């Protein structure tokens, strides 16, 4: 690191400083922090998920702990409150931390607790998105896309596609808790390179659907088993140009 102003050695002005640890604000600081924290977790019996390098899991005879790290924010859950509290105490001995209690909001996702589990939703994010699109007071629709929409190939191109791309990108993030709009959002994502007025009309329809369903989300029940079911349409109905 270059010698900071006011601390320059006038006898050796061309010398640089050798850092013994990362300083906040440096490019390598986030990496150094992640290495420090992940090393501690691995030494504590956690292993890193192969699906997400920020997700760490610990299986032991006492139960299971799951920890998610995002920069310096941590989500911790587990199979028992006692196990969670014990590990929080261990974290406090190693790092300066602030316990914010039960999770209610994280990266735009809201967590509502119900009697049989919890609900993950993005109601505030959805309303903010409608405000960005100037559609807060739009008329809701019951479906995100018409069943037999045919793209008009000679439709007028948008003079400024930035708004289209921005809204579609924001809708993609909304699909985290809204799988009901995934198919429609993925469809309009195909035209990011050269969107037309017709494509923008489709995006506005998705937003009208979001207006009427802003409170929708994922209901995760606290049962011991979780079965995932997937369905696929193999007749290319979603692509009339095929």
Record keyword descriptors for this entry.
2 domains, extended, 17% strand
Outline type: extended
Oligomer: single chain
Largest sheet: 4 strands, antiparallel
Strand order of the largest sheet: 1-2-3-4
Quickly count the domains.
Answer: 2
InterPro entries: DNA/RNA_pol_sf, RVT_2
Domain Reverse transcriptase Ty1/copia-type: 1-146
Protein name: Reverse transcriptase Ty1/copia-type domain-containing protein
Organism: Juglans regia (English walnut)
Description:
The protein has 242 residues and is of the alpha+beta class. The chain has two domains: 1-101, no CATH class; 120-221, no CATH class. The chain is built from six helices and eight strands, in the order H-E-E-E-E-H-E-E-E-H-H-H-H-E. The protein has helices at 29-43, 81-94, 123-132, 162-174, 182-188, 197-212, and strands spanning 47-48, 55-60, 63-70, 73-78, 105-106, 109-114, 117-121, 217-221. Strands 1-2-3-4 form a four-stranded antiparallel beta sheet, covered by helices on one side. A four-stranded antiparallel beta sheet has the order 5-6-7-8. Strand 3 and strand 4 (73-78) form a beta hairpin. Helix 3 (123-132) packs antiparallel against helix 4. The longest helix is centred in the C-terminal third of the chain and has 16 residues, at 197-212. The chain is extended, with a radius of gyration of 24 Å. The N and C termini lie far apart (58 Å). 14% of the residues are buried.
């Amino acid at each position: 690191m270059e010698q900071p102003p006011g601390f320059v050695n006038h006898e050796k002005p061309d010398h640089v400083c050798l850092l013994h640890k990362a300083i906040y604000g440096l490019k390598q600081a986030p990496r150094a922090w992640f290495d420090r924290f992940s090393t501690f977790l691995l030494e504590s019996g956690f292993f890193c998920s192969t699906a997400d390098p920020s997700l760490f899991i610990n299986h032991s005879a006492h139960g299971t702990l799951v920890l998610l790290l995002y920069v310096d924010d941590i989500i911790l859950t587990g199979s028992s409150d006692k196990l969670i509290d014990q590990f929080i105490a261990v974290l406090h001995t190693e790092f300066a931390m602030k316990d914010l209690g039960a999770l209610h909001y994280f990266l735009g996702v809201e967590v509502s607790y119900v009697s049989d589990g919890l609900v993950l939703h993005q109601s505030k994010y959805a309303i903010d998105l409608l405000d960005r699109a100037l559609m807060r007071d739009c008329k809701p629709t019951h479906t995100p896309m018409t069943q037999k929409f045919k793209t008009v190939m000679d439709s007028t191109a948008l003079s400024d596609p930035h708004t289209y791309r921005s809204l579609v990108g924001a809708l993609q993030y909304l699909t985290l808790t809204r799988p009901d709009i995934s198919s429609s959002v993925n469809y309009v994502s195909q035209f990011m390179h050269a969107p037309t007025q017709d494509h923008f009309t489709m995006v506005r329809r998705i937003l009208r659907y979001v207006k009427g369903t802003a409170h929708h989300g994922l209901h995760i029940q606290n049962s011991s088993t979780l079965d995932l079911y997937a369905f696929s349409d193999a007749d290319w109905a979603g692509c009339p140009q095929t």
